[in-house]
Design a protein that fits this description.
single chain, 182 residues, alpha+beta, 7 strands
């Protein structure tokens, strides 16, 4: 009597393996992409863009001081907030009285909700209202500094905010990076 032993997988076994692998990938890939997006280095770029939007909104606003209507305003310098970066994400209240420049952070309505590794600074070249500058004049530096591996060597990310042709704030295209990963 002869027995026929087959080597390999049947069609059903192959389909089952493919469906299990597909299910695993469907779970893993979105998680991986989310982790990549919120990676240590991505935080700085995301928060600097949010800080730019807050700065631009403040600059475009109109403010009353007695009977005067003020525009084109920038608040004073703020930060670094938190005072020191951390290699582990920490929740920071930018509006707290203990945070350097809390009044400016409140005025800008900048208070990130997620934990942060970097410390952030708002560095205007001039503050006040009625700021009329020629186009492409740098007005503000937005800075993020991080100690990503806990060795007291900082990575620095900066965005320059300039006056546009329309006399509004514009973000320079280049992101200045020093020691991206130290």
């Amino acid at each position: 009597m002869r027995h026929n032993k087959r080597a390999g997988l049947s069609l059903i076994e192959t389909a089952l393996i493919i469906s299990v692998v597909g299910t695993i990938l469907a779970v893993v890939i979105p998680t991986f992409i989310r982790a990549l997006r919120t990676s240590k280095v991505a935080e700085a770029s995301i928060q600097l863009n949010a800080l730019y939007r807050a700065t631009s909104a403040y600059y475009s606003g109109r403010y009353r001081e007695g009977r005067k209507l003020l525009s084109r305003c920038l608040p004073p310098q703020a930060g670094p907030a938190p005072a020191k970066p951390s290699d582990k994400p920490l929740k920071v209240d930018f509006y707290s009285g203990e945070t350097p420049g809390a009044e400016t952070w409140r005025a800008l309505k900048f208070n990130p909700s997620e934990p942060l590794r970097f410390c952030y600074s708002f560095l205007p070249r001039i503050s006040g209202c009625g700021l009329h500058k020629p186009p492409n004049t740098p007005l503000v530096i937005l800075r993020a500094e991080g100690d990503l591996d806990g060795d007291n060597e900082y990575s620095t990310f900066e965005r320059m905010v300039v006056v546009s042709e329309q006399n509004e704030l514009a973000l320079e295209k280049l992101l200045f990076v020093k020691d991206r990963t130290e």
